[in-house]
Every structure is written in structure tokens, then in C-alpha cells.
Records
---
Amino acid sequence: MLIPVNATTAGFAYLVGVLVIGANWGLTESIAGSIFAVLCFNYYFLPPILNFTIADPQNWVALFAFLVTSITASRLSSHARNRAREAQERQEEMERLYAFSRSILLTDPERSVSKQLAALVAQTFNARAVALFDRSAGEIYRGGPEDFPGLDEQLRITALTGAQLESDTSIITAIRLGSEPIGSLGLTGVKLADSALQGVANLVAIGLEKARAQEAATRAEAAREGDELRSVLLDAIAHEFKTPLTTIKASTTALLSGRLDGAEQQRGYLTLVDEETDRLNALVSDAIQMARLENGRVQLQLEQIDLAEATRRVLDQMRPLCEDHPAECAFPAGLPKVPADPALVELTLRQLITNAAKFSRPHTPIGISGAVEHDRIVVSVRDQGPGIGEVDLPHIFDRFYRGRHIKHHVPGAGLGLFIAREIVRAHGGEIWAESTLGTGSVFHFSLPLAQEKDAR
């Protein structure tokens, strides 16, 4: 009535409508559209107009054509949609596998890698629960917000046999490195294609192997560093032993020769022997103390100690060494006591005062002071030596490190400041230095006023 078209044109128009419905919706919608198109075609375009004559063979032909068209279009559309959905799912799985592979590279070697891998699988693939059985460790590591109950035995069986186990809610697959299973992986609440599941298992195997390779490399590096440390320690001690041994040998040779004039000369040589023997003893003690501190074998014997009194005791013991450097102590009255190991704290003070005496200019004083800062006491040892350059300052507490400008001029093995640092750290304190070339140096160390627990 509005647009003059014949029945054939109208039929094709309805056919296009059915195709559109079949391409964009499902089979049910396209069949309903076909029936509606047949009824409209019959009512509006086939004579008698505005009347249903379903008995007319033309109506049955039209209905059949529309139904075949709708079914074919919907099947093709459904197939295309399924292919597109599968392609989208594969793409998402590939993106998740890529994200998972990147996450494996960022695992923290200081923490359990197996536990991190289980958590990463759950996080990356939105699994409700993940269980990872590491066959070499014999442990099951879990990840995800839920538990993976009752499947521990299946995880072990899969790791031994390599068989894959599936149920309605979970799947367990073997983790292989080559042809040999090295563990198993169980997932709940996630549906993965077989290829994606094997990709996850292979990446987990790579992560486990990477962790084992890192552990082996760390052990090899530790062994290499241990050998290197022993070599350096022996070289340093041999070098430091050479001077006092030479002095002792020369003194004893002179004493045994019988050519000395009087008791005064003999006393002088014996004094040299005594001083160099003390030096040898100090070197051996430093090396032993360093080894104990590094291995954590030193147990702190905590007592409430007065740092001012401890400093005075150390200065009395070191009077021969410091006779050319008068000590200026500045500890305020009423300085609170600290919980610390008296012997180790005094050893720290000896190391810092010895260091100050070595590098101070002749006849210059050494300043020692203490003060309360917040919840700790800070002790400072000041010298008037040549100072420490910016290049050397960050490394002066390193083991065997000696400044480039003094290593050949001032005796030492480079252990004193290292030992002091380890002792202070064992007490939960800090040690640091401030220095400028030409103006001397100040070494500070702090001890907390309360010890929550022993560091070693």
C-alpha cells in the first residue's frame, strides 16, 4: 500500500531479514523470524491479500525456503561465532602464558620459588586453587584463594607416572623436564585447552629448573668466594706477620749473639720482642673473631654496661699505643647503660681507637664522646689524620679494604673496621664514618637502649 512492490521483491526482502537474524542471533530466533516472515508474506502479498491462506502451496514453499535459510544462516553464524570465541580464548591464553613467563623471570630467589610459582599460576589464570608438587623437594605448594583438598595422593601419583587426571572441577597434569616427570600441577576453577595446560606445565618446569640452576650457581659462587677469601686472608696475614717476625728474629739473633753492651740494650730488644708478639697475637685474634662473626657463631652475652667506664678500661689497656695521642673523653653525666656484650663492645672501641691512633698526626689528641639520640646511644671517635677520600669512604668497613693512599704506608690487614661493623650489627646498631680529606675523620657507632632479641 505504501511502496508498490511485487511479491517476489517482498519475498527477497523478508529473506534478507531472516539472514540478518540468523547471522546475529541464534537458531531459535532465526526460526521464529522465518515463521513471522512467512505469515507476513502470506497476509500482505499473496492473494487473497489481508487473509491467511496457509493451504496455498506457495506458502509452504516460502515457509520451507525461509526455514532452510534461517537454519543455514544460524548454523554458519554460530560456527563463525564459536571460531571467533575460540580464537579469542586462545589469544587470551597466549597473553596469559606470556605474562606468566615474564613473571617467572621476576621470581625472588630469596623466597621459595615453588610457592611463588603456585601463586603466580593462580593469579595469572584466575584459578580458585592451585597445588604444585615438587618431586625433588617432596613438598606440595599451594596458591589461590581456596584450598585444594583431598588430592595430595593424586598429585604424587601423577608426578611418578606422568598420567593426567581430570574431574568435573579439577585437573592434574605432570610437570616434565625432558621425558622425566619432575612434579605435578593441579588446578581447580579454571578451564584450559590441552595446549595451554601443557604450556603452563612447561613454564613451571622451566621456573623450577631456573631456581635449581640459580641455587647451584650460588653454591658454586659461595665456594669460589670461600676459596678466594681463604687465599686473601692467608696473603694478608702472611704479609702482616712478616714485619713482626722479622723484628723478633733480628732481636733474638742480637740477644743470642752475646755482643750486646749491658742490660739496657738487652731490655730494648726484649721490649721489641714483647711488642711484636702482642701485634702477632692481635692479628690472630682479629682473624678468629672475623671468622666467628661471619659464621654467626658468636653468642652475645648481654649485660647492662656503662660505655664511659668501658672506654676508660680500653684506654688503660691501650696506654702504650696511645701515649703519643692523648685521649679526650666527653661522656655526659648520667649517661644510661645499654644492654650489650662487654667484651665485644670493648673490642669495637679498641678497633676504632687503634685506627685513630694509626692515622692521626703525631702528638694530636683522639676525641671520644657519647650522647643519647632518641632510643640509642651514639659513641664517636675523632682523629686528626689525613682524612678519607670520597672514593674510599663507602668501602672502609669492607673486609680487607684499605685506602689506596695509605695501604703501603700504614701497617694493617684491613680487618679492624670490618670486625667493628659486624659487632655493632650483631647488637642491632649502626656504624658509619664522616670524613673530609685534610680535616680528619669521625667514626660513629650506635647501640640501642633496649634489645628486643639477640641478633646472633
Note: The mean pLDDT is 78.
---
Amino acid sequence: MISSMALHHLRDSEKPEMYARIFNWLKPEGLFRCVDETLSLPKQAQEKNIREWEVWARRMGATTEDVQLWAEHAEQHDHYAPLGMHFQWLQTAGFTEVDCYWRKLMWTSFGAKKPG
């Protein structure tokens, strides 16, 4: 099962239940893979990542209005959690082999396996 850029729209209090549902949907030895935004710690690291993303976005042609729109959307709709919390929630749901496969700024690829 794959999730792409969706789970950060759930409040942190809803994420454990979603991971439990995903666990139950999978067959034994099933894999869950996720690409999403995660929160960097401490706060200064997250702020640095956002600044680096803004530089990249402007290089790609984003306007000040584009960046502002993203920031407003994030403020209203996004709920980023640290990767360590995702790992805890996955393990609590019953997953094993929890791992991070790739990370760049706040974008992260991670996943886990349902035991056989």
C-alpha cells in the first residue's frame, strides 16, 4: 500500500488510527510505503528547511504570491509530525521493519512491513 502526500493532512491525533487501519488492510508480509512531509526538530531546523525550499521554489519560477499561498495552505491544513513519531505510530500499530528510505528537507520516504 502506498500513501503519497496525504497523511500530513490528518491531525496527529488521527494518525495512529490511520496506521492501525492500514495495518489491518494489508495481508501478512504486506508493505506500506509513504512519501510525505515530516517535521524537522528542533524548530530552527524546520525553519531552515522551509527557507531552502523557498529558494528552490523561486529558482523553479515560483512567485512571492505562490510561496505565500503555500504558506497559508500549510498553516490552515497541514499537520506535520516528526519522523520519529511516525515510526512510533507504525510500531504501535504492529508494523515491523520500520525505516526511512530517503529524505530531502521536509520530504520523506518511509515505510514498514506487516509481519507474516
Note: The radius of gyration is 15 Å.
---
Amino acid sequence: MASSSMAFQVYASPTSPSGPARLQSRLQVQLRIWLPVLLCASVFAVESTSCFGADHTSAPLQRLAEAIFGNCVDAHWALIHHLIRKTGHFAGYGIFSLVCFRGFCLAFQDAASRLRRRLQAHGLAILATFLVACADEFHQSFLPNRTGQFSDVLLDTCGAVVLCLALFLVMQMAKGCRQERRRAGRRRKPACAEAAA
């Protein structure tokens, strides 16, 4: 399993070029780092239009739910539709925070401590998610069939916190497993050396 430092080395800016070539190389690196963040933000921008208001998404989603579960969804469709939309908020902005984490983690490669770099990246990813969610809800407050609600901002930020925390715990567990394997490998080496002697 490749370590995260090996994966991030792909984005390390080369030191050999100079002048315009070096600037172009840095721009390419920055584009590779931040393009996924921009693509996710553009999805939110499209989704934040009046075309994706609850009045437009209800009928297609209801038809899909009826095709899967039958007509039993009709009696509770308003609640189901509300839960689908709120789950979309939570999951969509949670995924956005992970994409932001990747960008910030790559941008902070020169940080002395890997743990500090990850914590900074997680904090900034959550902050970026909060700011984008605020901008999204503010924009929706001007649309006739949408409402800007701070509760949605909090839900989006909760999605970011939960997914960032889950990722942090997974990364810490993976680090612990790698260290345990190294320790086990060191313990085996002397035994193998004795057997060879």
C-alpha cells in the first residue's frame, strides 16, 4: 500500500526549471490540486438554481421511488422528499469537504509535521465548506422558488465535520497499522538471522 507521502509527491513542484517554465509548472501543479474543488463548487452552483428547487425535483424523484418501492411511498412522499434533499445536503457538502481536504493537504506539503498538516487541512476544509454553504444559501434567498436557510448551512457543515472526522480516524488507524507491521517486521528479522546462523 503506497504511503500518502508517495501519492502526494506527484504534485511536488519541480525545482529544476527556471523562469517561465517554472511558473508554468507551478500553475499546472496548482490546477491539478484545486481543479476538483472548482468542479465540486460548480456542481453546487448549478444545483443552486431555480431548476433544482423542491417544486421541480419532487415529481421525478417520486416517479423513481414508485418504480422501486411501489405506490406505498405516496402517503408519506412529502417527508420522504424532504429527507432525500437534506441527505443530499449532508452527503454532498461532506464529499466537498473531503475534496477540499485533499487540496489543502497537497498545498501544505512542506509542513514539518504530517499530523499538523492534516489537522490544518481538515480545519480549512470545514471552513471552506461552511463558506461555500453560506454563499449557496445566500444565493438561493434571491430565487423565487428557493429559500436560503441557515439550518441548511449547519447541516452542510455537519456533513463536512462528520466526513472529515471519519477520514481522520481512518488515516490514524492506517498509520497505526503500518507502524505495527514495521514493528512486527523488526521483531522477525533477528529471529530469521538466528535461524540462518
Note: Residues 58 and 81 are 7 Å apart (CA to CA).
